[in-house]
Write a structure and sequence with these properties.
Blueprint (H helix, E strand, L loop, with lengths): L1 E5 L7 H15 L3 E6 L5 H6 L3 E4 L12 H12 L3 E4 L2 H12 L8 E6 L7 H4 L6 E4 L2 H10 L8 E3 L17 H10 L7 E6 L8 H13 L4 E6 L7 H14 L5 E5 L4 H6 L3 E4 L9 H8 L4 E4 L2 H10 L4 E2 L4 H14 L12 H14 L2
Length: about 375
């Protein structure tokens, strides 16, 4: 088959990485994989796996983006793909409008993946208009059924995100030269309890709660250090400065480091004692949480959405009620004192299981 995936950009994030992983799986299986986006730092990786990239400005959240409908329809006509798979709302509208205006006998079959628990409105409703709708967790499936009751339950397929067991395993250790560079750059981490909050700089990711936790643990005399790993979009620069001011106000400037975007997040996680998932808005899945659990790292997270699902099954000790700051501190104390290991991560949370299940959805429509 020829499969076209369409998403806003290829910079960083779980959606982007999942798109690349699926493309690589399809190519390895003898299929043709094409990705349409506005481009980004991951395009070279996509091409290395044997997939093709078509650049189209489908990333801007503005009405003018609908001018791309005509261009996409032309691309779909030329490519004669079997499947068109959209993964985000703006590309979703462009894809759906282009697809709807094509001859039903010649157009590709339409698949969408609901990657987020979006605000409920007509704009978000496009994510439910695939002939098959993939939900990345049971929480996501429930969100679709509760908020979009016209969507038939029998077209929804729950496919959790997956990790590669050979890359994310309990005994994984970074290369010696990487460890040497890390330790040389951060000698002050030796002997400290290191907490990591992965995720882009945005108000939804729980940075404030994370810094309060670091400050409270420090006040109790624990040698603690907090790391924040994630991109800062130019539009979020003011929020980053707000967070830096908060760190100074709490008196933890020496105990917090902003790492920015990291291509080596897996390696960074292995150097930490606890990984945190503190999003204050329920997330559809929580890929970095799964990756940390697969590496054998305790995860401290709020019991909501996909993160709560993962912790319920793999590390219940790390579950804390949403916004419960006292519970968060108590759970952190217990984890740092006991150093427990999460349960092993297996199917359905493997990369191969995710890709096979997605291919099965495509095959259903052929």
């Amino acid at each position: 088959m020829k499969i076209i995936q369409i998403l806003p950009e290829l910079h960083a994030g779980g959606v982007e990485r999942g798109t690349l992983e699926l493309a690589a799986f399809l190519v390895a299986g003898g299929h043709e994989a094409v990705v349409i986006s506005n481009g980004g730092r991951l395009v070279p990786d996509l091409k290395r796996c044997g997939a093709r990239h078509i650049t189209l400005p489908v990333h801007r959240k503005r009405l003018a983006s609908l001018w791309q409908v005509r261009h996409l329809r032309r691309i779909l006509t030329e490519e004669q793909a079997d499947i068109l798979h959209f993964r985000s709302r703006v590309p979703g509208w462009i894809a759906w409008l282009a697809w709807r205006s094509m001859d039903p006998r010649r157009r590709p079959r339409l698949v969408s993946t609901v990657h987020g628990l979006y605000s409920v409105n007509r704009y978000s409703a496009v994510m439910t208009r695939g002939e098959r709708v993939i939900a990345v967790s049971e929480s996501t499936r429930s969100y679709v059924l509760e908020n979009y009751p016209r969507v038939p339950a029998d077209i929804i397929r729950v496919i959790p995100r997956g990790v590669e067991p050979d890359q994310y395993k309990v005994d994984y250790r970074p290369p010696a030269d990487w460890q040497a560079r890390w330790q040389a750059a951060r000698p002050g981490l030796a002997g400290k309890c290191v907490l990591l909050l992965p995720g882009r700089i945005t108000r939804l990711k729980g940075h404030e709660d994370f810094f309060e936790l670091v400050a409270e643990l420090k006040a109790e005399g624990l040698p603690v250090h907090g790391l924040v790993a994630g991109d800062t979009h130019p539009k979020k620069q003011a929020y980053l400065e707000e967070l830096q001011t908060m760190v100074q106000r709490l008196g933890i400037s020496g105990e917090v480091e902003f790492l920015g975007h990291r291509q080596d997040l897996r390696e960074v996680m292995t150097m930490c004692d606890v990984v945190c998932g503190l999003s204050r808005q329920p997330e559809s899945f929580g890929r970095t949480v799964l990756e940390a659990l697969a590496l054998g790292k305790p995860v401290l997270g709020y019991d909501c959405g996909g993160v709560g699902e993962l912790l319920a099954g793999l590390f219940p000790m790390g579950r804390v009620a949403l916004g419960d700051r006292v519970g968060l501190l108590e759970a952190a104390r217990a984890i740092l004192a006991q150093r427990p290991r999460p349960l092993p991560v297996g199917e359905p949370f493997t990369l191969k299981a995710m890709c096979r299940a997605t291919l099965s959805v495509y095959q259903e429509l052929q």
